[in-house]
Amino acid sequence: MDSIKVFAPATVANVACGYDVLGFALDEIGDELIISKKETLGLTISAIYGSDLLSKDPNRNVITVATQALLNSLDEAPEFGFDFRLTKKVQPGSGLGSSASSSAAAVFGVNRLLGEPFSKTKLVQFAMQGEKLASGVPHADNVAPSLLGGFTLIRSYDPLDIIELDYPDELYATVVHPNIEIKTSDAKRMLKKQIELRDAIVQWGNLAGLIHGLAKEDFALIGRSLEDVIAEPIRGILIPGFEEAKKRSKKAGALGCSISGSGPSIFALSEGLQTAQKVAETFRSLFEEIGLESYQHVSAINPKGTEVIK
Ligand code: HSE
Q1: Residues enclosing ligand 1, CB less than 6 A?
Q2: Domain check: are 240 and 91 in the same one?
Q3: Which of 58, 61, 79, 111 is 20 to 30 A (C-alpha) from 236?
Q4: pTM above threshold 0.90
Q5: Residue 112, exposed/middle/buried by CB under 10 A (0-12, 13-18, 19+)?
Q6: Are residues 134 and 180 in the same domain?
């Protein structure tokens, strides 16, 4: 096999109470990447469709940086290089794991073309190097669900320990992307380096509650646990209409609502597709009132993660 086309899904990171440790994969939206072996050594990006913001310089694009991390871990370097053609369907700065989708697609596809020397779980640590380039921090809460699908928990970063979580089939996500851009690196710098013990107690209670609620399919517990007292109070002010979106989505039946990753996208979780669609309509009319262009997406939790497509 000399060429492969892969899809890596967009993701919602943090999921309210799991800053930098929890995330889930969305269906349908994500990046597509064609990877081809080439005779000359080295990595090249010959095309990027769907975004003018990204560099084709191999030192400045997450695709090539993540791939280089993978190649550096091989016992023997391949006698060929790789070329990448990327179609961006997750906008950079949207809060839907744009850089993670590209990094996940790259390491997954290159690993396949090399005969799968690494497991999918192992690929997370290479894709994290793409996140380091994009945001300054090698966080895994977008790349892990983008690669593995479902809900993933980063139980530990050192050593890396990724847990694939159980979740109810009837859980649906609604995401809205108001058309503004927030750089993850800026949104990370905004946060306090230290937190109060009383906030930590609330946060870890909620994180444990959310994971138990997901496993037991206890929707009421999921709803009670979707609360973030650490990042959301600081970042929420950057997103016009955020507090109103929370209020109205819950009134429409959502279990809970918070910022997707570092924003500006907002996500809500609901029991059942119908409620999730009602929440999408609530988001649409809110941003229309505010006068801000927005894009809504209703999604089941994507169980597959990154995959080969035709
Ligand atoms: N956990 C990261 C953050 C996700 O909130 O900064 C960025 O998409």
Answers
A1: 13-14, 19-20, 95, 97, 139, 141-142, 184, 187-188, 231, 261-262
A2: no
A3: 61
A4: yes
A5: middle
A6: no
What is the rounded CA–CA span in Å between residue 34 and residue 140? 23
Question: What domain range is 204 assigned to?
Answer: 171-300
Rounded distance between C-alpha atoms, residue 83 and residue 219, angstroms:
45
Number of domains observed in the structure of the chain: 2
Q: What is the CATH number of the domain that holds 264?
A: 3.30.70.890
pLDDT tens-digit readout, 274-298: 999 999 999 999 999 999 999 999 9
Question: Which amino acid is present at 227?
Answer: E
Q: How far apart are CA 174 and CA 301, in angstroms?
A: 10
* Residue spans of alpha helices (H) in the chain: 62-72, 98-113, 120-135, 143-148, 184-189, 197-216, 219-225, 232-235, 242-251, 273-290
Nearest-angstrom CA–CA distance, 61 and 218? 41
Looking at the structure, tell me whether residues 113 and 185 fall in a common domain.
no
* Residue 161 and residue 190 in one domain: no
Could you tell me the pLDDT band of residue 1, with boundaries at 50, 70 and 90? confident
Q: Which of 17, 19, 186 for a ligand 1 pocket mutation test, highest count of atoms within 8 Å of Cβ? A: 19
Gap between the terminal Cα atoms of the chain: 14
- C-alpha distance from residue 190 to each of 24, 221, 262 (Å): 24, 30, 10
Q: Which residue has the tokens 């380039």?
A: 133
pLDDT on residue 80: 97
Which CATH number characterizes residue 12's domain?
3.30.230.10
- Whole-angstrom distance, CA of residue 41 vs CA of residue 83: 10
